[in-house]
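Q: Hi! First time doing this. I have a protein sequence and I read that you can turn it into a structure. Is that right? Here it is:
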Amino acid sequence: MVRASITSLQTTNSQISPTEIPADANNSSWAARNPNRPVLMSRAPLNAAQKAQANARRASRKFSTAQRKETEDALTSAIQQLLADQNDKINAIALEHGVTQDKVKKLMGGEKHYKGHRNVQLANALIHVKAQEVNADRPRGAKYSLDEIREMVKDDEALQNLSLQDQQEYIDRLNEHRALRNMSVRASNTAAACDAQSTLDNVFKMLDALAVRTGIYACLFASRGHVYDTAQATWFGTNNVMDFWEDVLQMEADEIARKLEQWACMAGRNIDERETVQNMQRVCTRLLNSGLRTVAKRRDIRINYANFDVAIKEKLGIDIRGWPEGVPFQSPTSLNDLNALLKIRDALKDGSCRWFRLSPRQREEYSAQLAARRKKGEVVGKPRKKRADAGVQRKRKGKENAPPRKRARGSGSSTQAPKSTEYVETTDEDNTSGDDV
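A: Yes, that's right. Below is the predicted 3D structure, encoded as structure tokens:
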């Protein structure tokens, strides 16, 4: 893993000051610059009694963890012994019946248990509801633990034998709570910096592991978004990917991170200022064209929205799926609805809206459908506008004064050497003019 942090800018704060902001505005934190967003409040510090209780619980958990580890080690040893005995029996059966061990294992039957998505379960939703009920007014350090809340849920008759509607309501409440926490802003610069550092560390570890498993190259640049923020600019790269910036673009990673930090701090925008109609139009256009170029494997292609059925879907065999419902399929630059643009951006980012190639059979069926529509007299796509001087012969630009084209000389024709100036005969007029001079 290659990683570096840029601790400070070489430019002064006056050079990277935010854009013009009212003097009475509070810009001290990310939450203050986004007053219309929900805030994740920081925890209050513990007092002496609460610290003592926390230390006692920490010691109790440490003792419980040691006991649990001993139990798990004993269970692991027993399972390993069982597997060893099982392999000996499988080998004996294979030798007795003259078959391979793989065949015996296959006949014994095996299952692969794949880990599914961690969707919201009813048990988690009930625990969440009960925790909000009993821990809402209790101070930190005196809240009920997860095991205690789980027992409360079992003892609460109102949470047993719920109807399907009530169950779905509790699940929706937990989904809403999780979404709110993911989309809320940090209350202070310190909390924001800690969150950024912790999340980036996890991302770096995942990218390193992914590079080992798949051999991909990945690089990442991160910067604070305001001069008052305390997060450090940093960059990360797998293996020797940072050589690309130096060899191809002639820029070092530190320089790129500094320029990114300077650009972000010069703007100093909050979420609402970033999510404007103009910015979202550019972002959606960039994502759509980039996805199409990746699927088509062409760098010079752009989306023809007016003739999409013919120019893209029929000619290239490429289509798009997952376009947001209620949003017309047209160029993002023609949309002035911010909510519609945000839907397109979110769908493109999470992968629910993406480009894909049609199979040969799908392509043939679609071409047949377009041919049937044309046969009925229907105009497929938007025809090009006819020129006002259509049918009139026009001169080619720049060709009227061009010299006539030389005729090609045949291979059998004889060639004549040019005359030398030594043997050019002069006329009497030339001689006369020369004598007069």
